[in-house]
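Good morning C.,

I know you're traveling, so I'll keep this short. The sequence:
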Amino acid sequence: MNSKIPGLHHVTAIASDPQRNLDFYVGLLGLRFVKRTVNFDDPGTYHFYFGDRRGTPGTILTFFPWPGARRGIRGSGQIEATAFSISPDSVGYWLERLKQQHVAAERTASRFGEEVIRFVDPDGLLLELIASNSLAPVEPWLDSSVPPEHAFRGFHSVSAALEGYEKTARLLTDTFGYRLVEESGNRFRFASRDESAPGRIVDLLCVPDSGVGRVAAGSVHHIAFRARDEQDQLQWRKQLVDLGYNVTPVIDRIYFHSIYFREPGGVLFEIATEPPGFTFDETLEELGTELHLPPWLESARSQIEKILPERSYSCTARVEMSATSYRSDANSIPMRLCLAHAEKFWKTECRGSFADLPKACSIWRI
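The tokens, ready to paste straight into the viewer:
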């Protein structure tokens, strides 16, 4: 097979509070809320997608926010850290921004010549910002609270913690077409041959003395690699089956098609197609503003909306992190300050935009 994997498509993790998850990744980290849908395998749960302006493959971090989910345990057989690329000139900006929002961040020792900032999200998911001199051509979200020059430039890498790394390394090199490009201690860095692709790096950490991890809130559920199209994906499936992997049939995820399998170290891998993309059922301007369901769940929309977590509202443009609760008709309602338009707003029963605010201040019900 001549095709090679160019890099990551998305990373999917687990959270325990939908509103808190949304506030952190949109309000603090400045990602765009690209798609609001449900977990197709568990329709009573949201599936949130965050990314760049278009939801470009290689920028997409997604979450299953299961309310009250127990905290996961870090260990082998899982993704230890998910890293985004930033400009080297943005290191100071992000250290200060995280400090202002009371997020404990550590500026670690340089890794393969690149500066690293480490911190965790509200559920304990380990995140890294890596200052890279080779930034992928992604489109920052211009309505973000983060200035474009400091915005995330897609994924830098993921780090997989494994009891032993050799079999996974052979999958990356002999099958996916990756190359071993750096190594230091127990860290082995592999990179795709597409030097312009976001998320082209996978680090394997050999941790034989670590216990087996438990995937739950604050853990990565799976990582997805990119396939050019459906035909390319089918060729990948055949090759993996021929190599002895148990691979799922192709599954329709609406915005891409997916196949899943466990790599030798136990991490769940997915190969997802680049098309059709997130503008399949929304315009570019409308991304993330409405709850979208797959056709086979539309008939159950009213039931699904009733069992989804309680409603809350946020502004799609520059949401202030701190919120205040006000009373109206004996109800406590979350308030947000829209920094783009300097307006406080609230409403209890509303879908769409306020008549007196610009479209950029549209709200959604979650």
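Safe travels,
E.
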